[in-house]
Amino acid sequence: MEKGKGRRLLLFATQTLCVFFLFHLLYIELITFKATPSQQMKITGRQILSELKGDHRSNAVEKDNQHQNLQNLLAKLVGGEDQTKLDSTGFACDNTSWSLHCVAKNPVKINMRTMYVHLHPSQINPTSVANSKPNSKPPTTTIVRPYAMQENPYVMNDITPVTITTTPPSPACDHYHRHPAVIFSSGGYTGNVFHEFNENLIPLFITSRLFNSRVHFVVVDHKPSFVEKYRRVFSRLSDHEIINPGVDSNVHCFPGAVIGLKFHKFLGVNTSDNPQNYYSMTDFRSFIRQTYKLRTQSVFHTSNPPTLLLISRLTTRKFLNQEEMVKMMEQLGFRVIIASSAKDMSDVEKFSRVVNSCSVMVGAHGAGLANEIFLPDGAVMVQVRPLGFQWDVDAFYSEPGPGMGLKYLEYMMEPDESSLADVYGLDHPVLQDTASVAAKGGYDAARKMYLDKQDLRLNLDRFKETLIQAIRFVRPDTNVANV
Q: Which stretch of 22-31, 117-126, 398-407, 451-460 has the lowest confidence by average pLDDT?
């Protein structure tokens, strides 16, 4: 009996100890409770949902900020009453004495086949829709020929018109873009370096540079040779491939658009007329140097002896005594480079480096002088003015030069230096009363006579004085007393 009793006591003690141990474990589990996998999943799911909502709100805020920033940038392209109109309606046109460009700061649909720009419904006057009242205003339509020089009658009729309309319904989008469109024409006088810079590249820089390459170019009258020639410029102003409506008949949708380019003045930029004083001609020249990797910024970093670039024309306005001119230039201490091949000069990448290495550039009035854009700061551009065509050319070269940081000199032709003296004689009104030609026949008659029919035979003694002035500019320490 005693032995059985002892066993029952031992078993009871063991059970009691096990129960105590189990309670202890349960207590620890309660104190250090962790969620079950299903509970953890529910908690994590709520966290992910919360984070997704947060990301969605963040993306929405970011998109709103981007849209607001885009609208602010587009608004900088117009001013005064036009900016007020843009703010209130989302669409306005800036029409100056030379150029016309229109800005839509809300989404647009562009039908590349018809070149119709359909404005966003928010830009439609509520009284202009189909179900409007009898006395309501009709939908608005604006036609723009997107060429910078609007008052040039010789080219405007050949520029493809772009129609901007609030007429519903608009077509469905084939392509959606995040960045705005800039529509311009590569027609007109492209192929002529002066007009390429004057009416295309500088206005395009003024219009699109503030978008920091986040812009699409839509080029009507697309000229492959022009686009290829300046592909480096286009690729730096836009991150996207150029859209050519000639081969693209789709409907493209953009968050905004600029139709036409801002033009300020010949080969120049009016800082005060630029978007909020963003850019100057100095900025454009820096942009060009970076684009073509032009290393020489100042004329004082050029070679010694200084290099003179002679723009030699092979058709009209030829230098008839060019060999003697070059010999005199070399005697004055210049190393002379003669540029006469249109093919060589059309290779912008190579020729820009040649120009950038020179201290002085000399040429008769003509497109080739626009290459002064590539000259280093402080260099000298010498324009030889042909007889009889000495009006309205200040705006072409003499005025832009100082705005580029260049020195400008000119050599005015005398009647006996013109090949027209051999044809008409020195006493003829064509040489002695050049204004009479324009008075009778207008600009076309003057151009035909003095630009298309005239060659030049410079008086070397007179021209020498102009070159000595150029030496003093680029090499102030040179003793010119004995040259």
A: 22-31
Closest CA to 106 of 75, 145, 65: 75
Q: How far apart are CA 45 and CA 60, in angstroms?
A: 22
If asked whether residues 277 and 242 sit together in one domain, one would say yes
Token output for 447: 């151009």
**CA dihedral (281, 148, 170, 249) positive or negative:** negative
Whether residues 107 and 246 fall in one domain: yes
- Tell me the mean pLDDT in the region 409-413: 95
Contact 234, 198 (CB under 8 A): no
Residue 282 has pLDDT above 90, yes or no: yes
Assess whether 144 and 200 both reside in one domain. Answer: yes
Separation CA 74–CA 179 (nearest Å): 11
Residues counted in the chain: 483
349-353 long-range CB contacts below 8 Å, 24 or more apart? 349/232, 349/292, 352/288, 352/292, 352/294, 353/292, 353/293, 353/294
Judge whether 12 lies within some domain: no
Say if CB 395 and CB 266 are below 8 A apart. Answer: yes
Residues spanned by the domain of 397: 293-474
Helices assigned H by DSSP within 393-434: 400-403, 420-424, 429-432
In DSSP terms, 135 is beta-bridged to none
Instruction: Return mean pLDDT, the chain.
Output: 85
Q: Where are the beta strands (DSSP E) in 340-406?
A: 360-364, 380-385
The answer, yes or no, to whether the previous bond of 224 is cis (omega within 30 of 0) is: no
Confidence of residue 41 (pLDDT cuts 50, 70, 90): very low
Could you give the CA distance from residue 79 to residue 85 in angstroms, rounded to a whole number?
10
For residue 141, what are the β-bridge partners?
Answer: 165
283 and 307 housed in the same domain: no
* pLDDT at residue 430 greater than cutoff 80: yes
Tokens of 134: 């009898």
Q: Is 142 exposed, middle or buried (0-12, 13-18, 19+ CB in 10 A)?
A: middle
Quote the number of domains for the chain. Answer: 2
